[in-house]
Amino acid sequence: MSAFAEAMRERVRAARAELAAARVAGDVYAAMVAEDELDDALRLARAHGITMDEDDGRGGS
After folding, report:
1. According to the model, what pLDDT value does residue 61 have?
2. How high is the pLDDT of residue 51?
3. How many angstroms separate the CA atoms of 6 and 22, rounded?
4. How far apart are the first and last CA of the chain?
5. Origin, by domain of life (predicted)?
6. Quick one: which of 49, 37, 47 has its CA closest to 10?
7. Alpha-carbon distance 61 to 2, whole Å?
């Protein structure tokens, strides 16, 4: 695995963790910021052909 791919996977993992923490804390603003970061990280990963082992981590549909 390339260093870039691992860095992208770590960015996605971190964004998912931040989103989960913000939701638990009930911090709507932090959740929105974390969701934007997650969207951006997933978009960039897909653009470079990097697949994630999990769904987008947001639940729902």
Report:
1. 30
2. 87
3. 24
4. 30
5. Bacteria
6. 37
7. 31
At residue 60, what are phi and psi to the nearest 5 degrees? Answer: 70, -155
Q: Long-range contacts: 4-7, Cβ < 8 Å, 24+?
A: 4/48, 4/50, 5/48, 5/50
With 80 as the cut, is the pLDDT of residue 56 above it?
no
- What confidence score (pLDDT) does residue 52 get? 81
What's the pLDDT tens digit per position in 12-49? 999 999 999 999 999 999 999 999 999 999 999 999 99
